Amino acid sequence: MARTGRTGSLMLAFALALAALSICNAAPIFRPVSDSHRSAALELFSLVDGSFARLEEAYEALRTFEILGVEKKGDVSAATCPSVASVLGSSSAPKELFYALKVNSILKCNVDDASFEVVASRLKTVVSDASSLLDFYYSISGLVLIKDQASGVEVLLGDAEGTFQSIKALSQSDGRWRFSSSNPESSAYAAGLALEALAGVISLASSEINQSMIRTVKNDIVKLFDSIEKYDDGTFYFDEKVVDAREHRGPLSVTSSVIQGLTAFASVTSESITLPEDRILGLAKFFLGIGIPGDAKDLFNQISSLACLENNRVSIPLILSLPSTVLSLTKKDPLKVKVNTVLGSNSPPLKVKLLRAFSSVSRDVPAIESQELKYDPESTFHSLILPEAVDVGRYIFVFELALQDSEDGKTYATGGQTQMPIFITGVMKIVNAAIAVLDSDLGTVDTQKSLNLDRENDVSLSANHLQKLRLSFKLSTPRGHPYKPHQAFLKLKHETKVEHVFVLGISGKQFELVLDFLGLVEKFFYLSGRFDLQLTVGDAAMENSFLLPIGHIELDLPEAPEKAPRPPLQPADLSSRYGPKAEIVHVFRTPDKRPPKELSLSFLGLSLLPFLGFLVGLLCLGVNLKNFPSSVLPATFAMLFHGGIAAVLLLYVLFWLKLDLFTTLKALGFLGAFLVFVGHRTLSYLASTSAKLKSA
Amino acid sequence: MARSTGDDAQALFHSLRSAYAATPKNLKIIDLYVAFAVFTALIQVVYMALVGSFPFNSFLSGFLSCIGTAVLAVCLRIQVNKENKEFKDLPPERAFADFVLCNLVLHLVIMNFLG
Fold first, then answer.
1. ipTM of this complex
2. Which part of the chain is the Ribophorin II N-terminal domain (chain A) (predicted)?
3. Could you give the C-alpha distances from A7 to A3, A18, A41, A361, in angstroms and in order?
4. How far apart are CA A303 and CA A280, in angstroms?
5. What is the Cα–Cα distance from A552 to A536, expressed in whole angstroms?
6. Which of A132-136, A278-282, A578-582 has the lowest mean pLDDT?
7. For residue A19, is pLDDT > 50?
8. Looking at the DSSP assignment, which residues form a beta bridge with residue A530?
9. Longest dimension (CA), chain B
10. Which of the two residues, A367 and A189, has the higher pLDDT score?
């Protein structure tokens, strides 16, 4: 019995969690284009030296500014028109011509008809020779732009049906297109380009195109929309199935391309294309759900797609948005709703109905039912004053739009029922707040103090471990109903900064916490002394949430036994841990004692004495230089020999004083070689002399 | 008895002296050189005994240079001595060249070790 009860409560908790999650996910807010988009556009599209780096970027920037109605600083025409003229004048690629013509359509530079003629004939050649989708797209779109800019130039296609067929030949069965017949990958981005190109062909056709061909394209569009993807919040988007490693196009650029193609095609066909209403609305929400993109290209894709959706012939999405989703009962805020098109323009005349509003707590019983919002023409808001019975909390409001003109139903997409999360806040009433110390078993009150929870209190209590602490108060909503706030804690903080937090229990409107110190002695680590009390009551719906110190309590707990747990270490004072440490004084090894200078110098002199003795001894022995060669050449060699030895000894002295081993060895190598040669000559001469003497 | 020992010692000393006087001059020069080297070594040892061996490498290099050069001189003396039958065919100039070369190498190493 107990086990099933537990699983039952587990299931209930799980279901509630899922419900809460679904409430969170199912109802985000989409807001139409606003001034934040305009300021983002000014920031993202930056000029380098007064002009744009490439015509493609120039076109993106200018088109975004044109749609948003932003005034560009500086004279962009003067900087950009020369590059437009140069591109149109020279034989550039179709892509370059396309962007130059796009920029010209916005800036209206003075390009003469002769240049247009040349470009038009060039583009017509490209159309007739083209085989890849991009060639078709750039050339046909270029011709359409010339048609708008220069009315006198001949742009109509001779073989429109042939071109139509060639483009159609690249389509796939799932509604996507290939980029060329050699490339097997199909892409939704290519589908968008193809639809735009086909729309161009239809507008440039000199004779009517076969309706059956147009109908097959419409079927392709329907098939393409079958492959649309969606997120949980009701947004729809297109993405590529196969990710192209070379040029990754995200869902934003792919969806943007499809929208442009679809709206372009819809604008040139006489019959309408029927697509499910929620798809178009979902696509609009996809673009609005991005918010403000951080990248210039993303912003351009977003704004140009929204401009296509703003007045298209399939269906125009209408966006319901709220300036504020938090309403205060104290300030008596009315519920305000705005309905706009995606670029923020006014909607056609319609009524906004609040079908029902239910709170997250009780989903079955709606708090509000079937109310109609009043429209204020000056502020263009639809508003409703909340009924008296509505209480604080989180709600889901379900709206429905009703167009006043039934004809508008075909043109506009309202999206049926829209869910919005609304938060209603108010001031909670807290009364009968009291704190008391009770004697344990009997429950008799030892001391009782009442609290005023509007401001800080400084209650002083004392208790020992045999007593209990009771804190109680009553909390109710502005309408008088019980409410369980998100947070209701009492914190006890000891002098040593050890903290304990307790959650207050609730029954109806009454909050109560009873701390039995007998059971808590071990939890408190046997720390006696002064504990500061702090009460926290808070909730998102509560406008007067508070965190107040309410006083202190002197607790007398028994002594800790030996095996009791120690209180956790408190974090050390940051400045002592991370502050500068004491200066380290290095203790050097005491240098060895050196002898006094005089002693050393005297011994230096003493060690020279044997040398002097040696010289004196030599004189005593009667050394002579008789054997020194007398003739010139041997004498020279002998001198060089002695000089060489002296040089080596000098080198050694230099080595000791300042040279390093390698320099010394290098020098020694030269000197040694010299010395060997000279020595050999001298000594062999001496040997030969003594040999002659001996033989003689 | 003591007198005889003293007389014997004196007689021995005189005979040694007279024998030594007969040695050729070049050998005496070499002997003088050896004595000079050994005395220098002794003075360095006395100095080290007085002040301690702190830069030990310096003491070693000085001491060993003296001893090394003394040893080389002794070798030279052996090779140059005409009474030495073993080195009869070795010209003294060659021995002297060896002596010079070995001394130069010794002193290179000593200078490196002197620090």
1. 0.88
2. 34-310
3. 6, 16, 55, 21
4. 16
5. 15
6. A578-582
7. no
8. A554
9. 56
10. A189
Residue B15 structure tokens = 């005979």
> What residues contact A402, with CB distance under 8 A and at least 6 apart?
A350, A351, A352, A353
Q: Cβ separation of B51 and A595 shorter than 8 Å?
A: yes
- Token readout for A84 is 């437009």
**For helices A632-657 and B92-114, what crossing angle results, to 10°?**
20
- Residues in chain A closer than 8 A to B111 (CB atoms): 652-653, 655-656
Rounded to whole angstroms, the Cα distance separating A527 from A567 reads 8
Q: Is A291 left (phi over 0), alpha (psi -120 to 50) or beta?
A: left
Helices (H), A472-542: 517-520
Residues 6+ apart with CB under 8 A from A298: A252, A290
Tokens of B52: 């301690």
d(CA A664, CA B22): 44
3-class DSSP state for residue A528? Answer: coil
Test the B interface: residue of A621, A626, A654, A694 with most B CBs within 10 Å:
A621
Positive or negative, the CA dihedral A450, A452, A453, A455 is negative
Query: Which run of H or E residues covers position A508?
Result: none
CA distance B40 to chain A (A): 6
**What was the pLDDT predicted at A23?**
45
Indicate the residue of B32, B44, B94 with minimum beta-carbon distance to A607: B44
Rounded average pLDDT over B29-38: 93
Q: Which of B43, B58, B67 is the mutation pick for testing A, counting most A CBs within 10 A? A: B43
Query: What residues of chain B lie within 8 A of the CB of A613, using their CB?
Result: 35-36, 39
The C-alpha angle A116, A120, A126, rounded to 5 degrees, equals 150
**CA-wise closest residue to A373 among A394, A407, A398:** A398
Distance from CA of A594 to the nearest CA of B (A): 8
**Torsion angles phi and psi, residue A209, rounded to 5:** -90, 145
Concatenate the DSSP letters of all residues of B52-92 into one string. Answer: --SSHHHHHHHHHHHHHHHHHHHHHHHHH-TT-GGGTTS-H
Beta strands (DSSP E) in A167-315 are 177-178, 186-187, 229-230, 236-237
| A48's tokens | 């380098």
CB-based contact A140:A96 (threshold 8 Å): no
Helix axes A296-310, A277-289, angle to 10 degrees: 150
Distance from CA of B86 to the nearest CA of A (A): 19
Cα dihedral A560, A566, A571, A577, rounded to 10, equals: 100
**What's the rounded Cα separation, in Å, for the pair A427 and A330?**
7
Pairing of strands A546-556, A459-464: parallel
pLDDT at A9 > cutoff 90 = no
Q: Which of A367, A371, A399, A366 is nearest to A384 (CA)?
A: A371
Give φ, ψ of A116 to 5 degrees.
-60, -40
